[in-house]
Write a structure and sequence with these properties.
Helix content is 76%, strand content 0%. It is an all-alpha fold. The longest helix is centred in the N-terminal third of the chain and has 35 residues, at 52-86. The radius of gyration is 20 Å and the shape is globular.
């Protein structure tokens, strides 16, 4: 049995890497402008960086692929961690208000002229952490059921969204970026946005991987975790901070992209394992590849017109959310 489980995990890693590689290749090759890879690489080799081919590769497709990779990674891992800490398989950054908290922070930053760099990632993290702590503290203090936690997150989503809309009403300039931001989109991704977020995301994922065994213990429940010597209060804060950092950094790049943190961890648990030492890296790999493939699909299906990738994710995620809600599997601790 253990051998079969090990083989399944190995095969899952192989599939995830294949999906990731395929998504990167397609993301670079495909777009509204048809340019072959040889033309793009030829321009780079010749040093003709001002050519159309080189500019499309360097300043449009590469930052976009990089952005979709790191955001998919961040949101998927954030969802896996939040689900473990809250013991709720329906929880994800977009559902319980974490993305909305980061989104409000980005809206406020835009109002004050901060549109990129490490400051945007920092304030996005603070907004996300504020939101996740409200949900976590409320759930623990009031003894809320798993279903109530989701309702609390929905209410927080609505409230934070209303605050963001109020800011946009009084500062109309902020509304210029609001449509794509609220849906989730990579069309305006730049290196200035991607690089600071990528650094924060990679560091957070590495730290989470080192604490994987502690995350497994925490998912057993407070009493069992304390019996095994884990400081549950401290570790819960650590995990929520890291998940907020991941979600906040992603939101600062792509906006309010939904359902990645719900879909990907569920898929990984179903086809491979719930062990955090594999759940975290597999969620990162599948999340990166999945979002990049969806973004490529959003670019080419209606070319030369382009859909925000958040619309694709909503079409995929909403039915899945309804399905697991009806089946009643979202709230089980080890589902």
């Amino acid at each position: 049995m253990k051998s079969l489980q090990k083989n399944r995990i190995v095969y899952t890693y192989a599939i995830s890497l294949a999906v990731l590689l395929l998504s990167v290749i397609l993301g670079i090759l495909l777009g509204s402008t048809k340019i072959s890879l040889s033309d793009m690489l030829g321009a780079i080799v010749r040093g003709d960086y001002q050519s159309t081919e080189a500019r499309i590769l360097l300043y449009v497709r590469l930052p976009r692929v990089l952005g979709s990779l790191i955001c998919g990674m961040a949101l998927a891992v954030s969802g896996a961690v939040i689900q473990g800490v809250l013991a709720n398989r329906l929880a994800s950054p977009s559902i319980i208000g974490v993305n909305a908290g980061a989104g409000l922070a980005v809206t406020l930053c835009s109002a004050f002229g901060i549109i990129g760099g490490w400051q945007l990632s920092l304030f996005s993290f603070l907004g996300a952490f504020f939101a996740v702590m409200i949900v976590s503290t409320g759930a623990k203090k009031w003894g809320a059921s798993r279903g109530t936690v989701i309702l609390l997150g929905v209410a927080l989503n609505a409230f934070l969204g209303a605050v963001s809309d109020t800011v946009k009403t009084f500062i109309p300039e902020v509304s210029i970026i609001s449509n794509d931001f609220r849906v989730g989109d990579f069309s305006s991704v730049t290196y200035a946005k991607v690089i600071p977020a990528a650094v924060a995301i990679i560091v957070a994922v590495i730290v989470l991987q080192t604490f994987a065994s502690d995350l497994d213990v925490l998912t057993l429940g407070d009493e069992n975790a304390k019996g095994l010597g884990l400081n549950t209060g401290v570790m819960r804060i650590v995990f929520l901070m890291l998940s907020a950092l991941l979600a906040g950094a992603a939101v600062s790049v792509c906006g309010l992209l939904s359902f990645v943190g719900l879909l990907v961890p569920h898929a990984v648990r179903r086809i491979a394992t719930s062990e955090a030492k594999h759940l975290v890296p597999l969620s990162a790999l599948f999340g990166a590849g999945f979002v990049t493939l969806c973004d490529t699909l959003a670019r080419v299906v209606f070319a030369p017109y382009e859909l925000p990738v958040g619309i694709i994710m909503a079409f995929l995620g909403a039915p899945f959310f309804i399905f697991i809600l009806i089946k009643g599997k979202g709230g089980r601790r080890n589902a």
